[in-house]
C-alpha cells in the first residue's frame, strides 16, 4: 500500500485539500472537507490569544467516508522561521469515526508543512482529550490553516484551541539522532512492534552508527530496524525519492480500458505512485472517461486485471474503479489495537472527481497474480465479498498490509506497516490473497489462460441471465 497510508491510512487525516470551496462561518471560521455541506462550525475567539478559541464542529448525515473540517486562515508572514504548536482538549459526542486537530502551512507550493493528530483520533463520546501537533514554517510561507476535523456524523468541540510559536531551532542532524527518531517511530506505531526483542536489537543498531557524520549514514541501521519487524513491507525512502513522489505522479504502465468480444469490458489497472494532485486527477478522469465510453459494449460484465499492479498510492486506483465498486464501505484497515478504519472508493483528496456510470451491480472477473502487490492487493481486497464477483489466476505477492508514512529529520521517510487489510465481510488478510479459481498458466504470446477462464465465467453467467429474462417474458 506504500505511501497511500501516509494520507489515507486514517481517512480523517486527509486534510491536504486546497484552500477553496470553503464555506464561511462566524468569527472568520470556515467549513471545508469532502462533505462540507453536511457540516456546521461555530467558532469564537482567537487561537493566538492566551485563552484560545472555542470551536464546535457538527456533522449531520454525511455520506459514507466523508469528513468535515473547521478552519481558520492566518497570515504566515510573522511566523516565518518559527515552529508552531497547536494544542487543544477535544470533547466529542457520538464521533464514531473519529475527530482530530490539524495545522497546515502554504507557501510557494501547497502544504509546505502539514501535521494532524490522525494517529491519535478521538472516538465516541469523550471529554477533554488533549492533542498537540507541530510544524516548522518555511521562509516562503504565505498562509496558515488550522482547525478541527470530524469524519462522519457527530460533534467535536474545544474551548482552548491555542496556537503558540517560537523561533525554530537550528538542529544538526546526526546519524544517531536519525536512528533514535526511527526507533521511536517504530516502537510507537509498527504493527509488529510488540514482537521485537528491543533490549537485544537497540544496542546492535546503535553500534552501527557514529555520533557524528552525515544523516544518511544511519540508513543501513534504519533498514535493519525495519527488517527486524519481519513484515516485508516496511521500508525507508531517501529524502530525494520522497520529494520526487511528493511532487510527482505517474502510473507503472498505461491503464487500458477496452471492449472485448462477448459484450465484455476489460480494465488493466496499473500501479500508481506520487501525490501530485493534477497528475492524480488526470489519471482518474481518464480511466473513468474510458469506462464510460466502453460501458454500452459491456452488457455481460467486466474483467479487472491487477496482474501488473505493483502498488503505490491506492487512492487513484480505487477512485478509477469507483463505477464498479460503488459508494459503500469496501473494507478497511485494522491496526494493532484492533481499530478498523473504513475504506471507500471515493477519494477524500479529490471529492469532486467524476463518479462515472453506476456499475456496482455488474459482474466482475478479477485477475490476480504474484506481481499484484501492496496497494494492488488493497484493490483486490476491495472487490472481495462484492456480489457477482469472482477472482482468477495465482496468489498475490503477500503484502496485503497498510503502511503509514513518517518523516525523519533529514526529509527521508519511513513507510511503516501499521495495519492489515480487511475486506467488507470482516476477513483480515496480511499474507497472499488466493484467487477463487486458480489458473497456473502464465500469459504468453500464444494465449492467456487466466483471461480465458474469466471470460468463460462471465459469458456463462450472462447466458444464464438471458435465459431467465427470456423465460420470464414468456410467462
TrEMBL record:
Signal peptide boundaries: none
UniProt cross-references to InterPro entries, sorted A to Z: ClpP/crotonase-like_dom_sf (IPR029045), Tail-specific_protease (IPR005151)
Ranges of residues in domain Tail specific protease: 222-440
Protein name, per record: S41 family peptidase
Organism: Dyella ginsengisoli
